Amino acid sequence: MPVGVTLDAAPPAPYHLRKKAWQRRREPDMAATAQTPVDELDEAGARAELERLAAAIAAADEAYHRRDAPEISDAAYDALKARNAAIEARFAHLARADGPSGRVGAAPAEGFGKLRHAQRMLSLDNAFSDSDVADFVAGIRRFLSLDADAPLAFTAEPKIDGLSLSLRYEAGRLVQAATRGDGTTGEDVTANARTIRDIPAVIEGAPEVLEVRGEVYMSHADFAALNARQAEAGGKTFANPRNAAAGSLRQLDASVTAARPLRFFAYSWGTLSAPLGATQTEALARLSQLGFPVNPLTRLCPDTAAMLAAWAEIEQRRATLGYDIDGVVYKLDDLALQARLGVRSTTPRWALAHKFPAELAWTRLEAIDIQVGRTGALSPVARLQPVTVGGVVVSNATLHNEDYIAGRDSRGAPIRDGKDIRVGDWVQVYRAGDVIPKVADVDLSKRKDGSQPYEFPSKCPECGSDAVREPGDSVRRCTGGLICPAQAVERLKHFVSRAAFDIEGLGARQVEAFWRDGWIREPADIFTLEERFGSGLQQLKNREGWGEKSAANLFAAISERRRIPLARLIFALGIRHVGEVAARLLARHYGGWPAFEAAMTAIAEAPVGAESGPEWDDLLSVDGVGPVLAASLVATFRNPAERASIDRLVALLDVQPEAAPVAAASPVAGKTIVFTGTLERMSRAEAKARAEALGAKVAGSVSAKTDLVVAGPGAGSKAKKAAELGVRTIDEDGWLSLIGAG
Fold it and tell me: Rounded to whole angstroms, what are the CA distances from 652 to 342, 559, 563, 646?
């Protein structure tokens, strides 16, 4: 079935009409299905019967979920599965990977394992206005050096509000399924994914290796029915279909997942042994032909106007689709151009999520609490009278900072017409990007007489230290540092977070409990926990919620995380301004902990205010590292207590060096390159992306460690410094010839 390029695709017939149609169809000859009693089958007969049953059940799944044209009744389908289960019970060694037992009723797992994605699962940049979309298209043209009138087509498809899932097929068989996780490593939900009838266990005519990516979701009707069943049984009900889908897929017992009405839309792919097509449209059509559901509202748009028209039409149909969407995703149709554009650290340059307007609601602001973060930032949080916004009950919302509460921006200009926010106010709440609740406005007509402006604290509410606001900073910060318990706990929570050490069984709640009991005070304490308590098991297993097995699992998980990639370690340290992107840049630049530590130590030992020398220049040459981030790094290594804490931690770890991506036979792999001046045959951004794809490091300034400078017309100080340092300099033609693109 080709991918739809129109918004007029007819929706499937209502369930009750389809069910009547099933009952009018002739049922298969069940006598033939069960002509030989199971206890009379020999091994050869059992093998043949299991093969036949696997094919029959797969065909029934195909008819029911991908063609919306069921060919047998539920009773007949259940009879096929029951016979399959009976044969497998007698001949367990003959169970087939593509049989229904691999899809339904798997034994409960002890916990989800981790699967590393062969290709990272990326996020999407968001757009909230027509101008954002126009800027996105214009940016692609600039990157590719395309004229304004050059044809450039995009696909537009609904952005499903569900749970991302990656499916890997080898030789046509589903071998693993993983959630997005942190984009690099996800949860192994293979057994659960096999229970979703939209997901084929076996496909024909596919590439030898095929990684299909898509979204697991639940329809509105199925969600309502599930909640009704849960309520009737006295079980947990779900807040919305997205939560229901995520909770259902993450069941340790796959039979629970099998009982939940999960659906799946394919929208992308990862690793391939052979291409699916030359365009996004062709590739989606191929996935559809292979048996994967593809959203029928996907359409091809020749220009920006058509993209915006698709967004408007899909938004109009949003309420009638029968499942949740929160926007429209645009993707450049030409896959060769997608490859040229490449990706940023976490998002592709060739795709964009155009979100729908946030839903709004009014409620009462009951209190303003101050939370202290790991960097000492005092963050105001609105405690609200619970209100439903976009299908989610909201009781807390961010208030950003003291300026936002006072009704002004960081430059002192009025926002909300200068209206401040006070406790007791009637406030308007929205979910930004349908995710983070925020307070947008105040209804002054409902403000109570005698209400007072909110006074932002000048002391830390956790440790009593001064809370100061540095010039140019919109945030007030606690000066207590390591003596502030809130900062210490938040740092530990950050340390064990998913993008950092991600220690199974040691989350925010456990960190708080272990801190209260004095078990951990700094990251190194986590890795001496078992040693300090002997076996550790007795004290831990006696705690509420812990047993001998869970305690043993925690210590095993801690031990497993002693081996950690450099980028994760740098991010986990919680240094201000050093996020995941910066951590990866630093890890790739320095390669390993010894080089990174030596550079930071050399800079830190220089007199304060006299940052200079080759190590400082080299740090600032890292593309994406500026003076503010560099100063924050150095301040951490200059602080004796911070440095001692880091040293104690690293002594307990096996820090893995960062392996730079190296392209086969690349002449620039491992080289540090600086681009300067005007490039005429490709944009600077594309040149940088091309160099990184070939395994090179791209620096923002020239230093003694620079291997090559590519200088176009107008090159100035960087070319001059390269000449002074004796760094090889070539022009754009030389660069293209060097990489084989001339």
Answer: 37, 10, 9, 10
Active site residues: 159
The whole-angstrom separation of Cα 330 and Cα 136 is 10
Give 354-381 as a 3 state SS string.
Answer: EECCCCEEEEEEEEEEEEECCCCEEEEE
**706 contacts 699 by C-beta, under 8 angstroms:** yes
Are the beta carbons of 740 and 721 closer than 8 angstroms?
no
Per DSSP, the three-state class of 369 is strand
Owning domain of residue 720: 672-738
Q: Is residue 712 part of a domain?
A: yes
281 three-class SS: helix
**CA gap 735, 739 in Å, rounded:** 6
Instruction: Mark which of 295, 321, 355 sits at the end of a domain.
Output: 355
What dihedral do alpha carbons 389, 393, 398, 404 form, nearest 10°?
40
The tokens describing 580, both together, are: 């995941």
The answer to whether the beta carbons of residues 593 and 650 sit under 8 Å apart is yes
- The span from the CA of 533 to the CA of 519, in Å, is 10
- Token reading at 302: 């020749």
Bridge partners for 138 per DSSP:
none
Total structural domains within the chain: 6
Q: Which amino acid is at 694?
A: L
What CATH number has the domain bearing residue 535? 1.10.150.20
Averages of pLDDT over runs of 10 residues in the chain (742 residues) are 37 34 35 57 79 76 46 57 75 67 40 85 90 95 91 97 95 94 88 94 94 96 91 84 89 87 96 96 97 97 97 91 93 95 87 88 94 91 87 85 91 91 94 74 93 94 90 86 87 90 88 88 92 65 70 88 94 90 89 93 80 82 85 89 93 86 69 86 81 83 87 84 89 86 66
End position of a domain, from candidates 51, 67, 102: 102
Domain presence at residue 8: no
The CB-based long-range contact list for 711-715 (8 Å cut-off, 24+ gap) reads 711/676, 711/677, 712/675, 712/676, 712/677, 712/678, 712/679, 712/680, 713/677, 713/678, 713/680, 714/677, 714/678, 715/676, 715/677
Whether the full predicted model's pTM is greater than 0.90, yes or no, is no
